[in-house]
Amino acid sequence: MTGQAQLEAFHGLLTAMLSTDNEQRAAAEKQYEEIPQDQKPGLLFQIYRLPGVAEEHRSLALVLLRRLLSNNWEDIVPTWGNDNLSQFCNELIAAAQTETSENVRKKLTDLIAEVARNRIDDNTGAQTWSEIAQFIQHCGSSNSTPLKQMALSVIEDVPNVFGNETSASVPGLKMLFEKCLQDANASVRSSALKAYVSFIIECDEDDKTIKSLGTLAPVIIKVCEHVVATEEEDDTPLQCLADLATSLPKVLQPHLSAVINLCSQTIRNTEKDESYRHSAMEVITSLCENAANMVKKRAANHIPEILTCCLLMMTELDDDISDWLAVDDVDAEDIDDEETVAVGESSLDRIACALNGKIIVPIFIQLATQLLNDADWKKRHAGLMGLSTIGEGCQRTMEPTIVEIVKSITPFLNDAHPRVRYAACNALGQMSSDFAPTLQKRCHESVVPALVHTLEATNLPRVAAHAGAALVNFSEDCPKHIISAYLAPLMGALERVLEATYQKLLSEGKKLILEQIITTIASVADASQELFVTFYDRLIGPLKFILRECPENFKILRGKTIECISLIGLAVGKEKFSPDASDVMHALGPSMEGLTPDDPQCSYFISSWTRICKVLGPDFAQYLPMVMPPIIRAAQYSPDVAVLDDDELPGEEDPNWSFHPVGEKKHFGIRTSGLEEKATACEMIVCYARELGSTFVPYVEEISKLMVDHLKFFFHEGVRSSAAETFPYLLACVKPQGGVTAMRLLWVDYWKALKEAIKSEVETEVTSEFINAVAECVEQLGPEGLTEEELKEIGVMMKEEMEAFESRRLEREEAEDDEDADPEEAREELNEEAEIESGILARISDLCHAGFKTIGAQFFHVIDPLMPLFFPLIDVRRTYTDRQWGICILDDLVEYAPEFAYRYQQQIAQLLLSSLSDEFPEVRQAAAYGFGAMALNKRPEWAAVAAQALDGLSSMINRGDARSTEESAVATENAISAVVKIIRNCCPGMDVSNYLSSFVHWLPVTEDHEESVHVYGFLADLIEGQNPSIIGENFSNGPKILNILVKAIHHDVFEMKDDAQMVKSRVAGIIKRISADQSFFLACVGNSNLDDAEKETLKNILASA
């Protein structure tokens, strides 16, 4: 074929590639891929330059050529030789100056940028295409708008286009930017702003360049002001301003007020196009997130306005609520035309998290109060949604006043407008999660009855369903003794609504409330556990009926029903549930055949099988042939992946794909459908291995190989975490029959893979799970299952992770070294970030615990080299999580290896004693536990140290905030237990009457169930021994003692261990002995301050055998 004929044939091929006929286009694309790579560049460039070729063909040729060079530069260009490369580059520049088509010129500019990017030498950083700088200068100084835009586009796409001459180019570029930012043409101004932001962000570490170009900030703001005022261009300038606020907010520092004023005025102008208003809000939010200290210090007076803007956007709801009311899907998003509301809410959430509660809450409560009292329903809605939105970021500040906040919300459950009622449900539900369990303990009397009442108003399905959803959130972290008080009326309401809404499904096909009610029943069952057995027989029949008779197209309803049944089974236990479990599993049999990961029922079924497995234990093994095939299919799922250029991205967002930028104009895509099901399946495998023990052995070999591979499945963190979590249970599966030999067959390969996975893992949460898996494997393997070399490797791994942790800590502190930072707030922010990182320390502490518990005191030799890394954790300048976990490691050292710990006794004693007064309860708790451990090890050298801590422990218990939060209460109760242990074991001949007199006033202990056996066992000793410091003169402390003992049983503080149950029996016996003197007993009850529920508990104690 001649050159001309080949070119014509190639032109025809490109024509076919643009065909609307899918088959013709696919065939042409296949033919194009078969053309030798070295021939494509010449053919594509010739098509572009060929006279008479249609614009769309020329554009396609340039797109394909850029893509080809982007992906294959190193393979193609070196074969050209320098002369041909120079000629090609010169022709590009020449063509750029003569191209008349705007669309083709854009594609040509992209190609020039791609060539310029690739001609930067990787070793020297030099730009080897010297003419590109001249081209940019020529185009930038031209009077031609298209040429100026080309120069600016190249800088935007390749901000390092000047290579190692970037610094030298700054003066000239500054002149170019300044000129073009003030150009008469709006599109040139926008292009200049995009290029400026791209370039200055590229130079973010060059202070001189940033200082020089930063002087153009006022001009940038004027460009944004002009585009907002005139709407000549789209919102691109504001998007660029947001990018600058994200990456280099210090450039905007001198002009902070001007930027915030511009944005707030834009947001307040409700006649303005949404895109400008949304981008303006993004600018403000980005400033708050990335320069919080700067905003708090230099723009504090603007914070009320910022919050007002968020709330204003949240009021922009549709007056017509007919579509909103018609929604019949629990998981439905709010209607599409309320995007502005979503932007306002999301921004408020991000701003609250960034600026923290001390700044936000006082201002916001005032704004919200005004809105809640407004006659406009939209403002009341915004106020309620706002209160629920700021909870995550302002949790510590809001929690002490949660009772007052909840009381201000509950009346709106009876608001005249349905959407306001919905917002009140939303607020109570979200706060139940954000402030758990404090809200449940302090606000249950106002929350539960109000939500139940709203739930039964089924004439407004969306509101009723959302009340049910709020009850789910409330139940999840609700103490059993609280949920039990409402169980009868709550379940009565749920049963009535279940019956009514199932009939509505049959008659009208409406499922919204029914789906939610089934989920709510499941959540209440999960919270109430064995107490739910009272309602089991009334509910299991209707639920099984729904499962059997539910129409095939209601797959989500079917999935939620099996989820509910499995949670109820888990609550009531094997004896009650076992017969129905068999019915359920056989009823599901036909659905399991061919169940695919993308079936909406799949994740529900898999999770439910797991719960049923937990209930039945080894008896579930009979169903493994039925359930394992779909689970293994889901766990083996391998997602489709793709690397696409900008111009290949789908025009509309595909919910089945997720794309992430990776380098210049490239995006990594992964097909996400099936991923969550894969992760769920892996979680379920963990459960089966844990619950089934040796009956799971037939699957161990296949699962172990799969999970070793999944340790590096970088597409999903949950899959990697489950892969690690599975192995300790696989060891337990083979242990009964094969012992150490069988375990080591699995362990050797797993440990080799896990060591590598830990080194390469980038997510700290996953690394934490990996370390936890090592700890659990150590416990399974025992001292005989681990070699000396493996123990050394575990020590090395811990050391490397501690060093990496320290490196990240120093980076965080350096990043927080901000002149605008308030020292106290900076420390609080560091603490919040450290909470995320603390998982690593927690798991290292767990590994130390497992090592000592399994190996014994000799494990000290593994961690002794790490002590120089552990002690600095407890420095008062470190974050509270560092101090907390550092002390926990010392606690284990004292508890399990006191003879070796003795060499560090002075350091340990000083650190723990000073930590008893730490402002953070988590640290105080760890220190108190340590002194209790000293007392229990009964070694004389530690007994004296423990006894010296009694005054410090007493002061800790008597703090004004000793029980102000859940964490404080647990810490205080740990200290009470420590005092008990010390008095019992370390104080022979010592006068402890003062401590005993205080002891009865420190009680009851209701939060820390693990310590209750020590505290109440000691109390029983003292009462039974008629200790005058406890019982008082003539048993004057009788009412107080009765209150303490009844509360202990009412709050179910005694674990199901033999020693705890023995103490519980003693407590009940003392109560019965008090009741023997009827008149004295009645007087005690009358003065005991027991509430009605506690009096009912007392009645049950006295009635028991």
Automatic annotation (TrEMBL):
Repeat among keywords: yes
One GO term describing the cellular component:
nucleus
Residue segments, region Disordered: 807-834
Origin: domain of life = Eukaryota
What GO terms in the biological process aspect are recorded for it?
Answer: protein import into nucleus
Segments of skewed composition (Acidic residues): 813-834
Q: Which GO terms describe its molecular function?
A: nuclear import signal receptor activity; nuclear localization sequence binding; small GTPase binding
Q: Among its keywords, does the record have Protein transport?
A: yes
Record's Pfam families? HEAT, HEAT_EZ, Importin_rep_4, Importin_rep_6, TPR_IPO5
Alphabetical keyword list: Cytoplasm, Nucleus, Protein transport, Repeat, Transport
Name of this chain's protein:
Imb-3
